[in-house]
Design goal:
seven-stranded mixed β-sheet, four-stranded parallel β-sheet
């Protein structure tokens, strides 16, 4: 009898251990990145890594090197390896349906980050979400930065004294929604200010530079030759391209004299632009926090895997949007020299160090 009781206890302990192990199984999240060389996405990736460093999830990263076909194959491989969930930063948001269909087939939750498929695509699978920034919001904050400077520094900015801000606009990839909406936000806001007279302005030129520093430098070089000192401000869809514009302007001596200085504005508040803001070569940028996006991606997936409502109690830094309530937007903040520390804190969380 004693032997029977002992065996029974051992079996119970074994089953309890197995049940506990199953309950406490650490999930594996596959993260498909569009291009490791993209500075901003690299910080989101590092933010996810840092946030999971306490063991809340195991991670598998893959780099598509800006090749959608390659990314499709990588995602299929991650699924075949048995990942429990996916974070996807797509090369082409148009591939969203294919990715969702693959995840849905295996009942794997998937979060798209930074680049979004269309809402109707997200709605085809109840376990799919988008985490990012509101497509127009960063540029609206950026527009307000420009106008605030115009109100305070009009004499310095208005180099030809005509009462009109002459500017050039550098776009990202014009087939992507971030670039489309950021550009629309600037143009519509500036046109409204033209109509009410609060800031008269003229767009001298607009051109795509594919979110790339080198391409933006080439674009800026062309504009310098064509427009010279007519350019009073450069507005860029992101910091990487703003950096290219600064390089071109610096090479032509535009920052050597207050009378020729051009004010440059970006989006993302990347560490690479902090010294430019400190030196006065960039007037400002917009913090689109990679840390907030990293946290939201992981928490949505962990909540889902554990049967909880994703991000049920979010703070003011997050906002659910979209008809289906499956798009989470992270708040944006204007960054200038006066509050540069706020940007530094966000990026330090994502692995930045001097």
């Amino acid at each position: 009898m004693k032997k029977f009781i002992l065996v029974t206890l051992i079996v119970m302990v074994l089953f309890s251990s197995i049940a506990f192990a199953q309950k406490t199984k650490v999930p594996t999240i596959g993260f498909a990145v569009f291009d490791y060389s993209n500075a901003y996405v690299a910080y989101i990736r590092k933010g996810v890594e840092n946030y999971c460093a306490d063991g809340k999830a195991k991670l598998q990263f893959v780099d598509a090197a800006n090749d959608q076909t390659r990314q499709n194959e990588q995602i299929m491989t991650l699924i075949a390896r048995g990942v429990d969930a996916l974070i996807v930063n797509p090369v082409d948001p148009g591939a969203g349906q294919l990715i969702i269909d693959a995840a849905k087939k295996e009942k794997i939750p998937v979060v798209f980050v930074n680049r979004a498929p269309f809402l109707e695509v997200l709605e085809t699978y109840a376990k799919s979400w988008y985490v990012g920034i509101d497509w127009m919001a960063p540029a609206l904050v950026q527009a307000d930065l420009v106008k605030a400077d115009w109100d305070v520094y009009r004499k310095e900015m208005d180099k030809n004294g005509d009462g009109v801000l002459q500017y050039v606009l550098i776009q990202g990839n014009i087939s992507q929604q971030d670039a489309i909406y950021r550009t629309r936000a600037i143009r519509e806001t500036f046109e409204a200010w033209n109509k009410d007279g609060s800031m008269k302005n003229e767009m001298l030129a607009i051109q795509e530079a594919g979110w790339n520093t080198t391409k933006a430098k080439e674009v800026m070089e062309t504009w310098i030759v064509k427009y010279g000192n007519k350019i009073e401000a450069v507005i860029s869809n992101n910091d990487a391209m703003a950096m290219g514009a600064v390089e071109a302007l610096r090479a032509h001596g535009y920052f050597d004299n207050p009378k020729t200085k051009v004010r440059v504005y970006g989006i993302n508040a990347l560490p690479q632009v902090w010294p430019l803001i400190e030196k006065g070569e960039m007037a400002g940028t917009v913090l689109t926090s990679p840390w907030l996006q990293a946290v939201a991606c992981v928490d949505i997936l962990l909540d889902t895997l554990n049967g909880r409502t994703p991000l049920a109690n979010v703070g003011p830094e997050f906002q659910w949007t979209g008809a289906s309530g499956r798009e989470i937007r992270c708040m944006d903040y204007a960054i200038t020299l006066s509050n540069l520390d706020a940007a530094k804190k966000a990026y330090i969380n994502c692995g930045y160090s001097d």
